[in-house]
Amino acid sequence: MKLDKKAFAIQSFEEAADHQKHYKNLSEEEKRDVFLHLMQAAYGFVGSDWPEMDKDYFEVRSLIKDGSTS
Question: What top-level branch of life does the organism fall under (predicted)?
Fold first, then answer.
């Protein structure tokens, strides 16, 4: 899954600031719905369930590099 950079219009700082006023007045549930819709548009899965996470990219690593605990 890759971010679709063409899913959104380029805005000026003033236009983007106007949107913040609108979102500030939304309830938490409405903000969640807006976030989900924007993520669906950005990653191209509008109208579908959230895709499964591909866990092949993750690995467990030790924070200790030289074997000492200090």
Answer: Bacteria
